[in-house]
Recover the amino acids of this structure.
């Protein structure tokens, strides 16, 4: 997911001024406050430092730049637990993960309080049903005065695929393996 985002940023480069100052994967971390060319991120990442979230958080919160967006494409609980410190440092967060919103209620309320206090953005848009943007759709409906009485449906594209395969007699293990190969499931579907 992160690689796709970097590729999209590279495609936008002539129209927008987006400066990538850091990138990481599960093993390596890359930081350059002057900026990293999107086309060079993957190559330079191979020679980066070992990914340690304590060090990454330190660099994020001790930066010079005033407008910074932290994009979390990890889905990691460890990273989501860092959100309060990131938001407290006046860094905006964008993520496709709902992870931070699924912790205890007090954590969610703390995030919302920091967002309001610091006037920072915390944007999350988990997608379900093959990419249906649920959060923004519900927010838009409520903002226009509509009342939602009920929401129902199978909201997992992965589960829908698996159910269809099982109905056709495919073994569960094979259906999961195929869903993963086709990109319908997370890299670790468990």
């Amino acid at each position: 997911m992160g690689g796709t985002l970097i590729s999209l940023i590279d495609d936008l480069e002539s129209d927008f001024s987006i400066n990538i100052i850091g990138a990481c994967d599960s093993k390596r971390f890359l930081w350059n406050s002057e900026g990293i060319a999107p086309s060079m991120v993957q190559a330079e990442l191979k020679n980066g430092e070992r990914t340690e979230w304590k060090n990454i958080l330190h660099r994020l919160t001790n930066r010079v730049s005033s407008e910074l967006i932290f994009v979390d494409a990890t889905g990691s609980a460890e990273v989501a637990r860092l959100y309060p410190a990131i938001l407290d440092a006046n860094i905006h967060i964008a993520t496709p993960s709902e992870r931070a919103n699924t912790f205890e209620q007090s954590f969610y309320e703390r995030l919302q309080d920091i967002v309001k206090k610091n006037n920072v953005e915390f944007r999350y848009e988990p997608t379900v049903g093959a990419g249906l943007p649920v959060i923004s759709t519900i927010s838009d409906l409520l903002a226009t005065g509509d009342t939602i009485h009920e929401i129902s449906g199978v909201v997992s594209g992965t589960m829908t695929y698996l159910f269809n395969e099982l109905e056709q007699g495919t073994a569960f293990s094979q259906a999961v393996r195929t869903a993963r190969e086709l990109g319908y499931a997370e890299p670790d579907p468990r």
Observations:
- The radius of gyration is 19 Å.
- The mean pLDDT is 81.
- Strands lie at 20-24, 28-36, 49-50, 69-71, 92-95, 122-124, 127-128, 132-133.
